[in-house]
Amino acid sequence: MLIAQIKYWMKFSFYTAFVIASLIACTSQSQVGIIREKTPLDSYIYPTFHHLDTNLKYQYPFINFNANAFRFYSPQSANWEHLFQDFRNMVTEKNCKLNFYHIGGSHLQADVYTHDIRTYLQTHWLDIPGERGLIFPFDLANTNNPWNYEFKSKNNWKTYRSVNFNRPVGIDFGLLGVVIETPDSIVEIVFRHDKTDVKPGFTRLRVYHNKGPFPFELNFGSDEMLIVNKFRNETLGYTEAVFTDPVDTFNLQFTRLIAGPYNLQINGFQLSNTYAGISYTTIGINGAGLYTYLANKNFEEQLAESPPDFFAFSVGTNDANVPYSSFNPDVFKYNLESMMKKVLAANPDCAILLTVPNDAGYKKKYLNKNVAREREVIIELAKKYECPVWDFYGIMGELGSSRTWKSNGLMRSDLVHFTVPGYHLKADLFIDAFEKWFQQMEKRKYIN
C-alpha cells in the first residue's frame, strides 16, 4: 500500500512539473535571443490570396482583397516577433499554450466569425486543441447567447451590463463586462457545448463571483467524484475546481450556507486544461464601445490572471455611431490607447492587433464618415506601438460599401451587422490575413 502511494505521488509530482514546464515553454524558447535580419515589416508585399478561394474575387468583385493583411506601419515589432517565435514553438513542440483575446461589441457577443477563427486555430494543427477560455452565460442574461454553447438555469436572474452609463452600486464588472445576480439560496447552472465540433475538455473550472467571504458551497453532482481540489480566492472573487479527467459539460449547484439576504453574482466561467494550443476568449457586449470596458473595475486584474499573448481590438462601431459633429477623434484615441495600456500592463510582450471597424450606415440611411476618422487614429497608434492594422473598412470597399454588401446578401438591413454568410466571409478574410502574417514572418532571415 505504501509503495503504491509513493508511486502515485511520484507520478503526480512528475505530471505537475510537466504541466508547469508546458505552461512556460513558449516563453522560454523565445527568450533564447534569436537574432534575425532586420527585414522591414512595413515594406512587405503581401500576396492577394493565401487561405481564401481565388474565385471569391469574381463572386465579390467589390471587395478589396489586396488590402486584406495585418499591415505594419513600423519596420520592426518586437512583440509580434515574440508572438511568432512562441507560436512556431507551440506548433512544432506541442508543449505550450498561448492566450488569445478578441474584444468588440455585438459582432463578438454573437461569436459567429470569432468562433470560425477559434475553430481554425484549434484544429488546423494536429495535437494542439487548446482550450475554450472565458465564457459568459448570456442565455441567463436574457440576451443572445453564442450559438456554440448554452447555459440553463431554473433560477430567476437580474442582468447588469457595463454598457449602461448609470452603473448600480455594488456591481463591479470584470473582463467580460456583464454580471448576473440572483437572491436564491439554491442555484443550479448547467453548461454544455452546442452545435460545434470544437469543444476541448477542461480539467479546471473557475467561477468568477462576488469578492470577499462567499457563503456558498459548490457541488458538481455526478462529477463531484472527479474533483481533486477546490479552492477560493476571496480577493479576486473566484472559486476553482480541479478535475482528475477532462470534462466538457457541468451541472453546478450553489447552496447558500447562511440565512439571507445575500445575492449571488456571476461574472463568468473560465474553462481551462493542460493541453497545448490556443485559448481563444471573445469579449463582446451588444452596444459596447471602448468607453464600456474602460470603467470595468476588475478588467485588469482578471486579464492578468491569464496574461494575453495576442489581443485584437475590434471596437469602434458604436463609438462611431454618432453624428459627424459629435465624434471626437481625440477622445477615441485616448480611450483606445488607455485600453491598449491595460493590455500591456498585463503582459508587456503582448502582440496587439488593431482592426478598423466595418463600414456602417448611420440610422440605416446616412453614410457614416466617422469610421474613416477612426482609421486615422488607429494607424497613428499602430505606428507608436509597432503593431499591425487589419483594415476591414478598407477591405470592404470603404465609405458606402455596407450597402453593396447588403445587396449581395452579406449584411443585414441595419447596415451594421452581417448575415451569417457575411460573418463567415469575414472570418475567412481574417484567417487569410493571419496566414499571410505568419508567412511573412517565416520569410525573415536568420543572422545566426
From TrEMBL:
Q: Where is the SGNH hydrolase-type esterase domain?
A: 271-424
* Domain of life of the native organism: Bacteria
Q: Care to name a GO molecular-function term for this sequence?
A: hydrolase activity, acting on ester bonds
Among InterPro entries, the record links this protein to: Ester_Hydrolysis_Enzymes, SGNH_hydro, SGNH_hydro_sf
Q: Which PROSITE patterns match?
A: PROKAR_LIPOPROTEIN
Specify the protein name. Answer: SGNH hydrolase-type esterase domain-containing protein
Organism, scientific name: Fluviicola taffensis (strain DSM 16823 / NCIMB 13979 / RW262)
